[in-house]
Amino acid sequence: MKPSSRQICFFLAAVAPVGKLVLMPAQLAADAGNDLLFPVLAQLVLQAALIFCVLLLARHDCTVFALVRRAAGDVAARIFAVLLAAFLLFFAFLPVVEQKITVRSIFYDTIPAHLVFAPFFLFSAYLSARALGSLGRVWDILAPLSAVGMAGVLLLSVGNADFGALAPFGAAGTGGFIDGIRRTCCWFCDSALLLAMIGLFPYRKGLAWKGTLCYLGGGLALLFFLAVFYGVFGEIAVLQTPAFARVSAFFSAATVLGRIDYLFIFALAFVMTFYVVLPVQEAVGTLAEAFGGASLLPPLLSVGCNALLFAAVSLLNLSPSQTISTITGTLFWIFPLFSAVLPLVLLALFGRRQREKIS
Amino acid sequence: MRALLPAQDILSFAFSDEKGRAYVCLFADALTDKDLLAEQVLRPLFSYAGAPDAQAVAENTLSPEVRTQTSLSALAEEVLAGNPVLLWEGADAGLIVGTKKVPVRAVAEPPTDVAIKGPREGFIEDVKTNTSLVRKRLKTGELRVEMLTVGRRSKTVVALCWLEGTCREEVVREVRAKLSSIDIDILPDSSYLTRFLASRPHSLVKQVGTTEKPDIFCAKLAEGRVGLLADGSPIALTLPYMLIEDFQSGEDYFVPAFRATFTRFLRLFALLVAIYLPAFYVAAQIFKLQLLPVKLLLTIAGSIRDIPLSPSLEMLLVLLVLEVLNEASIRMPKYVGMALSVVGALVLGETAVSAGFVSTPAIIIIAFSGIGLYAVPNLIEETSVLRLLMLLTAGSLGTYGILLLSALVLTYLVSTENFGVPLAAPFSPLIPHDLRDSFLKYNLRSMKLRPTALNSPNKRRQK
Amino acid sequence: MKKFLKCFPVKLWILLFALLVLTFFSNDFGLVDIQKTALVLAAGIDRDEDGFRLTAQIAVPKGTDRTTGGTSSVEIDGRGSTVSECISDLYARTGWVPKLIYCDLVVLGESAAEKDVFDCLDAFLRNEYMPDSCLLAACAGSAGELLSSTSAIDDTSALALEKLFSDAAEQAGQVMTTTLREFAIGYFGESRSGYMPYVRAQAQEGSDQGQGGSQSGGQSMASPKTEEKIYSARETAIFSDGVLVGILSPEETFAFSLLKGNVYAGTFSVDGTSYLVLRDRGDIRVTASASPAFSLFVDCTVQHYGESHTSAPEQLVKGTLSRQEEEAVSARLTQSLQALWTSCTQAECDLLFFRRSLRRASPAVYAAWKDLPLSALPVTVQARVRSLR
To answer: What is the pLDDT of residues C247-267, one digit of tens each?
Structure first.
């Protein structure tokens, strides 16, 4: 069971943007103010280019581990796999924290017990142990769900948005722009996620362009969401987390019909759950491939990785602001290392297609 | 032979022919048409004076269904199957006569699949009648019917049906192999076969389609599936199975497309409400009040104010009572049905509310949920378990628990495959062409190709 | 071992199911049963030397008997140096967990409005379970007394007040509503101003006896409810830097509504004749240049709605205005707009968000003009009324 190229496009267009709807909008509002669209636009363009590069690498029809092993041998490849898996787990940490914040905010009326979030790790352990193909099949369902959720949230919130709040352009200056890019590196790592998937899906002709366009399409929706978000909240946007759950609460029929926007919010939260598990699954898959053989290995690795994440989340439960600040600020450089530098290096080394054999 | 057939309902009739040769006819008392036996076989042999070889004797009878067999144990099996066996002095083989007459009921509308429009015939317990109902509808040489025997002691005949050139050979081979590998004592019903045919025997979700109607069975064969008819069971099996099949009713193809589309979405809505409503009700009361508008919430809060149980326990109790009522209503004799309905409705419903054991909203929700499940009757077993799981999760973890369980179920459904066909097709993997006959029902003239998910070698069914 | 591994997944599912059932029956995940919850419908805040007094109007579910419909409520007070402490005090006194998810109205008493209102609104803004869509209102006197009073309209005073702030009332131009979100944006923005409806409670004539639908809790500080009140919110309280700096009259409030373009099928009177507004276009324009220009412009289409003397049937049917009438009504509306602007300048309240608009148009010009008093800004005011033809 392998994901198809259509499912990859669905992921890029509809699932990848959803992971950026929780903390990132408020973070951007704090760093770049009303100019929040520009850092995101820059990140999207950069990521789109990197995704194009990664999809070109996918033409080899083998995983990144296999590519490195071919070039540098088993030991080096294993070291590389461990590093990549470690990065993926590190990358997964912030989305898990975001998921926790989302759950606390939208699924409960009072602050729930810490253990309420524990079953997520059980689900993550289950899903991470499975092949990527099953996640690919889920994207077929998640894509329309994400589209409907996003459309619903935007439709219910656009009427309350004052787009004039985005003016004047350039008020945040270069400093705000650079800060915005720096602080959002931890969210724009889709090229790294895709890199861990290559070789697990068949490359079809034109996928590189299609995937890039799909990603940009999803990015456009994200930009529109950010514009509406800032238009709705303006100066108090920095307080609004999770952003996607707050923005649609002001539509006029809420007093009559109740919070029907929760239908769309829950749909997005549902999609987010799978997005959060993806890097863990990829880490498990990478390690299983590197040290593989036994059929028991993926489940054991999955349990181990999720236990590690659970321990990290529990330990840092009482210092969320500092944790987020460290990841988005101090350690921001780790993300472009794997999402930008690594794909470019691999493309430079392996980008040329093998000559086709003529028979 | 008597040693092989010691049962007292196996009778023997001894006679002699014109030449004084001794004959004995062995037959099962309740399974033989004695008049036909006497008329077609015995009477002509009274005046037989020809050679003693089986071929000659067979030609002398008037029965169109006569076979010879040399093995005594095989002859004994034929007697046990209801086919009389004739043995005589100097015989080189025994004669098996096809004058079986098994007690069967009349072909009638199946109780589990009622149609307002469309055919009303249903399968019965006799495999020959069932195959005749199929043959009646598919008058083509491509229809293959292969009789297999399953069950060491029951020797149940299972008819494997498919359309040559339309169904994938690999599926036929795989089904045949799986059936041949079944080593079981008896096969009382076709549902036993589903356990052996499923790729995941412990799965919550079924992996084999079922139907009691020959028109639906034939339609599924025509789409490229394999069908199984087991003797003694009115429920036919079809493979490969997709979940969407249970949302499709035979009637959908006899009514206008827009009506069929509406009805299918209604079934989906009813099923989702049936599974999720009790869970969300409990989750809303305990964890997330904001799911309910404030006035509705206050009305509910007023109703449950004096109820001694917590909302989750109350809902669980009412659900269990409903399941017990459900079970009892199926099992109880007809004569006490009325009394039990009164007990269920008045005592357990009305009186329990008046006494303050349960609240009115809980009764309403469970009643609606119970009715909603029957919108898709073929999925009752799965959805009732799912409803219970959702309720337990909602009572423990709230709305987030419902989300996680839904995600788990979704993952499970999309990753289940049987005979190379995904259970969740055509939604996952997305097969745009097959969406024409999913929840949406296109006009019949638009459905020119067979379902792509089944990968039939003959793709076109309509020009 | 193989057999064990084969059965392991099933055993694992059984174990998980057992855990689930155990959790279901033992649940200790901090759930709060609805019976132990105080559903706060509205909060009234007053201030004294010691801190804050928060009066929470809590919904009390009625029985299922249909003859006793409606919602009853109880008012509980909490005291503390911050609003959060007041909420904790509520919890301590009643044992009910206060839930603010349904708190759709926050009323600020005179004492709270005299100082920076964000000292108390801050708590609601921080609370992730409090909707930012809740309505804000200021009131004459004590907010606690207002919420504790008996309304002639509804069993629950908060619901009666919310009816005043409905979309229909806003469209009629009778009230200018605001939410916590809008008020906070104005407060934290360049203009540092905001507004909210100003509520007054008047005794209903001839209703000085009898009990209302509201019940008093044992710990309530509310005065005995012996007369039914009618609430009015035709005035608007304006704030600068979070402090109440003025109250707009009903005419000024109507002019403000027209300027916002809110009015549809609203009525107003000029010289004994009532007019119905069928189309309202309001424009607050800021032209950023070295010498910026500000203008307030209203263009509305009206028809006759009522007169203090009878007219001919032909005139009744048409409802059109003569040219002179149009001019007279235009002049009156222009006067109202001017009065609105005068109130703003006198109170130094940038109610019309000129500073914000100027900054959006040109940060450089904004930097030069931001510290000037509002009275120094050149503003042109014009209202144009046209008759329905």
So the answer is: 999 999 999 999 999 899 888
Report the range of poorest mean pLDDT among A350-359, C70-79, C112-121, C134-143. A350-359
Q: Do A115 and C184 touch (CB under 8 A)?
A: no
Which chain A residues have a beta carbon less than 8 Å from that of C191? none
- A250 lies in some domain: yes
Query: Which chain C positions have a beta carbon within 8 Å of B398's beta carbon?
Result: 29, 31
Strands laid side by side in the B156-163 sheet: B143-150, B156-163, B226-230, B236-239, B209-211
What pLDDT score was predicted for residue C63? 60
Under the banding of pLDDT at 50, 70 and 90, the label for residue C5 is low
For chain A (359 residues), the mean pLDDT of every run of 10, in chain order, is 90 95 95 94 96 92 90 92 95 94 88 84 92 87 96 94 92 92 95 93 92 96 97 93 91 76 94 95 92 79 93 87 91 94 91 53
CB contact under 8 A, A164 and C16: no
Q: Which residues of A touch C101 (CB under 8 A)?
A: 109
Identify the residue whose tokens are 């006494």: B355
**Residue pair C138/C231 in contact by the 8 Å Cβ criterion:** no
Q: Which CATH number fits domain C249-389: 3.30.300.210, 3.40.190.10, 3.40.800.20, 3.40.50.1000?
A: 3.30.300.210
Q: Where does the pLDDT of residue C205 fall: very low under 50, low under 70, confident under 90, or very high at 90 and above? A: low
Domains in chain A: how many in total? 1
> Would you call C29 and A116 a contact, using CB atoms and an 8 Å cutoff?
yes
A122 CB within 8 Å of a chain C CB: yes
| Shortest CA gap B305–chain C (Å) | 7
Instruction: Name residues of chain B where pLDDT drops below 50.
Output: none
| Model confidence pLDDT, tens digit, residues C76-116 | 999 999 999 999 999 998 888 888 988 999 999 999 999 99
Tokens (6 digits) for B118: 């469309």
Check B415 against A127: CB less than 8 A apart. Answer: no
pLDDT band at C315 (very low <50, low <70, confident <90, very high): low
Nearest to C27 among B202, B305, B396 (CB): B396
Residue C284 β-bridge partners: C296
In a domain, A159, yes or no: yes
CATH of the domain at A328: 1.20.1740.10
The band of C29, judged by pLDDT with boundaries at 50, 70 and 90, is: low
> Which residues in chain B have Cβ-Cβ distances shorter than 8 Å to A1?
415, 417
Helix H or strand E segment including B372: helix B360-373
Of the candidates A168, A234, A296, which has its C-beta nearest C189's C-beta? A234
Considering the domain boundaries, does residue A359 fall inside one? no
Instruction: Tell which residue, B260, B255, B278, B249, has the closest CA to residue B376.
Output: B249
In a domain, A357, yes or no: no
Alpha carbon distances (Å) from A60 to A53, A203, A307, C209: 12, 8, 34, 88
If you ran DSSP here, which 8-state letter would residue A160 be given?
T
- Selection from B252, B225, B228, B253 nearest residue B240 by Cα: B225
Spell out where B178-230 has E strands.
Answer: 209-211, 226-230
How much is the pLDDT for B354?
82
Give the chains touching C; criterion: ≥3 Cβ pairs < 8 Å: A, B
User: Where do the domains of chain C lie?
Assistant: 33-248, 249-389
Å between A160 CA and nearest CA of chain C: 10
Residues of the domain holding A172: 5-350
DSSP letter string, C199-260 = EEEEEPTT--SS--S----TT--PPP--SEEEEEEEEEEEEETTEEEEEE-HHHHHHHHHHH
- CB-defined contacts A:C, below 8 A: 64
Asked if A208 and A67 count as a contact pair (C-beta separation under 8 A), the reply is no
> Could you tell me if C243 lies within 8 Å of chain A, comparing CB atoms?
no
- Asked if pLDDT for residue C211 goes beyond 50, the answer is no
B416 and chain C in contact, CB less than 8 A: no
